[in-house]
Amino acid sequence: IPLMLFISRFPLTTYRRHANLLLIGSGLFQLLVFTPLGAESGGNRNWVNIGFTTAQPSEFIKLAVAIWLGVYLPAIIQRNGPSNWRVLMPILPLFGLMALVLFGGDMGTAIIIFLVILGALFFSGVTARVIAIPILVGLFGALLLAITSPNRMARIMSFLDANCIDYTNACWQPLHGKWALANGGFFGVGLGQSKAKWSWLPAADNDYIFAVIGEELGMIGAIVVIGLFVAMTVIFLRIIRSARDPLVRIATGGIMFWIVGQALINIGVVVGMLPVLGVPLPLLSAGGSSLVMVLAAIGVVLSFTRDEPPIKRTRR
C-alpha cells in the first residue's frame, strides 16, 4: 500500500521517460527464470529465487506492457492510421514477452498479458478490424498450445465432460470447488469455518480462494466480491471517459482488462464456466508478486487522476 501511494504521486512525464526501461527491465527479469535462479512449481517455471523469497517476473510484465503501450501506441497510430494493420508491427516485441512466459509453461499468465494488449488497443482508437487480427491469431495459438499439451487437454476434457467423476485426477479441483460453493449456501458456514480448505481443495489460498469465500460467506459474500470488481470497472471507465491524454486512456484500459479480466477468468474457473487456467484472483489470492503489482497498477491509475485536470474536477 505505501508503494501504491508513492506511485500515485508520479506525473505523466515519469512514465514517458521510463517506459522503455520498464519494458526492457521486465523482459530481462523474466529471462532469469531460465537461469539457476529460476524456480518451478506445478509444472510452471515462472519464479525467481531472490534470497529470502521468490518473485514472479511475469507480473511485472503486465504493468510494463500497459505503460509502454500508453506511451508509444498513440504515436504508432498517428504514423500508420487507426485502420492500418501496420500499427501492430511495432508492438510485436510485446508478443515476444508473452512467448517468454509461455516457454516457462504458464499459459494463464500469458493470456492475461494478451488481455492487457487487447485492452490498450481497444481504448486507443484503432478499428475493430485491426483488433480482430491479434484476437484470431491468439485463438489459433491457444488452440495449438492446448492440443499439444496432455495436461491442458486433460483440463479441457474434464471441463467439457458434464458427468466427470474422475475426482482423483483432472476433476478433483473443479468438483471440490463447486462442492465448497454448494456447502456455503446463501449465508455461508461462517468466517474461517471452511472445510474444503483443509487439504480437500488444492490451491485454496490462491487460484480457488473464491470457492473458500463462497463456502465461508455464502452467496452473499460471493456477490459482494463480484460487486467490488464491478465498482472498480465503473471507476476505471469514468477515468477513461474523462481523460484527454491518450496515455491515460490506453494505460488505464490495459490495466482494467488485466485486473477485471483476470478476476472474471478466476471466478469463471471456480464456478465451472471455464477450464482450469491457474490465474489468481486479484487483491485476494495469495502471492506477493501479484498483490504488489496489482496495487502498483492501481497507484499508476491514481496518479493519472492527479495529473489530468478533467479527472481532478470529477474526483472532487
What's this model, at a glance?
The chain has 316 residues and is mainly alpha-helical.
Give your account of this protein's structure:
This protein is mainly alpha-helical. Helices cover 66% and strands 4% of the residues. It is built from twelve helices and three strands; from the N terminus they run H-H-E-E-E-H-H-H-H-H-H-H-H-H-H. It has helices spanning 2-7, 12-31, 57-80, 92-103, 107-122, 128-147, 150-160, 172-184, 209-242, 246-270, 288-307, 309-315; strands at residues 38-41, 44-49, 54-55. Strands 1-2-3 form a three-stranded antiparallel beta sheet, with no helix packed on it. Helix 5 packs antiparallel against helix 10 (246-270), helix 8 (172-184) crosses helix 9 and helix 11 crosses helix 12 (309-315). The relative contact order is 0.14. The mean pLDDT is 87.
- Give the helices and strands as they follow along the chain: HHEEEHHHHHHHHHH
Evaluate the radius of gyration.
Answer: 20 Å
> What is the number of strand segments?
3
Strand content: under 5%
Which regions have little confidence, pLDDT < 50, spanning 5+ residues? none
Number of helices: 12
- Coarse morphology: globular
Q: Order of strands side by side in the largest beta sheet?
A: 1-2-3
Main beta sheet strand tally, sense and closure: 3 strands, antiparallel
- Provide the helix percentage: 55-70%
Structural class by sheet pairing and helices: mainly alpha
Which oligomerization state do the chains in this entry correspond to? single chain
Q: What's the overall average pLDDT, rounded?
A: 87
End-to-end CA span: 22 Å
